[in-house]
Design goal:
alpha/beta; Nucleotidyltransferase, domain 5; six-stranded mixed beta sheet; 10 helices; 15 strands; globular
Length: 341
């Protein structure tokens, strides 16, 4: 693995995932990555056992000590220019179960990151790196942590998306986010628990006996089953349609693997079908590879593809880093301007 000249390490810390990366600063080429399922909830579970009587600094030290082994591993790949290394953390690190709970920025939210809320944490003897902790965004009844950073990164790498037309950016995931952008501001957030509900149904209750995981859809017959799930989402209500998973199995209409695919189409169909009745100028699908084909197929099936820009999954994968870099640059400049006043 090659070394790289950089002053930053980028950490995307989700509820159930952790991704730490270094890049070549000038071209954003990823050089090294550590990805694990040790999300913030894992650390919070351990912290909750010992938190009584502890200070905020104790909490910071506890969380950062969890990152230390990963950071040490990745730092071995880094040759910096002599200045101290900075760790940029976005996602759930700033949540109520994170390193420090930071307040949310408010909608409307600048897509260039000017009103991001962030906090700098100074190095300690135990963790000798500057840390920039980035918070999320809230609306009246919605919140997001992480997707705002991805959005900033997507727009930084795709300037043509910046215009005065209303655009809805779709970020699939455990809690899928639809972010409405007008001009230079995100103005509305909608959350769909598509991924979480899919996981719950596949792993709990009676319906789990009617499905079996399929890693990838590889043939057109299975895609037709996926399409049937999408179609079902437009004919009956969600609670009634879910029982189809049970009857598909009992009446031997589908195999367990096909039922898994049908359920995927059903839930994605419910999420995206709402878009067919809304007014907008453009949709932008921002999905990593694991869900890209599913969402693209659903958008084509629902007739949304003619107004949709499909962002390359590799661009989406690197969007968080681009967003973190832009936020960190802006925050650093803001601090320097304040110090010179």
């Amino acid at each position: 693995m090659e070394s790289v000249i950089t002053n930053r390490i980028y950490c995307d810390w989700g509820t159930t995932s952790l991704r730490i990366r270094i890049i070549k600063d000038k071209d954003f080429e990823q050089v090294h990555e550590i990805a694990t399922s040790n999300g913030i909830s894992t650390v919070y579970k351990e912290w909750s056992k010992v938190e009584e009587g502890k200070s905020e600094q104790d909490r910071i030290d506890f969380y950062l000590s969890f990152l230390q082994p990963y950071i040490s591993t990745i730092v071995e790949k880094v040759v910096n220019d002599g200045t101290s290394l900075e760790l940029v953390i976005s996602g759930m690190g700033s949540s109520s179960i994170g390193v420090i709970e930071l307040p949310y920025a408010e909608l409307p939210f600048s897509i260039h990151g000017e009103n991001v809320i962030a906090r700098r944490i100074s190095p300690t003897a135990a963790f000798n790196y500057d840390v920039l902790l980035v918070s999320g965004v809230k609306g009246d009844n919605e919140v997001m942590r992480g997707e705002e950073t991805q959005l900033i990164g997507i727009l930084a790498s795709n300037p043509p998306f910046e215009d005065k037309k209303e655009t809805i950016f779709i970020f699939p995931g455990t809690h899928a986010k639809h972010i409405y952008v007008n001009g230079n501001f995100a103005t509305k957030i909608e959350t769909y628990i598509t991924g979480e509900l899919f996981s719950i149904l596949c792993n709990n209750g009676l319906l789990k006996e009617a499905v079996q995981q399929v890693k990838n859809i590889v043939n057109e017959d299975d895609w037709i089953v996926f399409d049937e799930g999408i179609d079902c989402s437009g004919t009956i209500g969600l609670l009634q349609s879910l029982f189809r998973i049970r009857t598909n199995h009992l009446l031997k209409k589908f195999t367990k693997q096909q039922n898994y695919i049908f359920l995927s189409g059903l839930l994605i169909g419910y999420e995206l079908r709402n878009l067919t009745t809304k007014e907008f100028s453009r949709l932008v699908l921002c999905s990593e590879q694991n869900l890209f084909d599913y969402y693209k197929r659903a958008m084509i099936h629902l007739g949304l593809h003619n107004v949709t820009t499909f962002v390359n999954p590799e661009t989406v994968k690197n969007a968080t880093i681009r967003g973190q870099a832009k936020i960190a640059d802006y925050y650093l400049q803001k601090v320097e301007n304040h110090e010179h006043k």
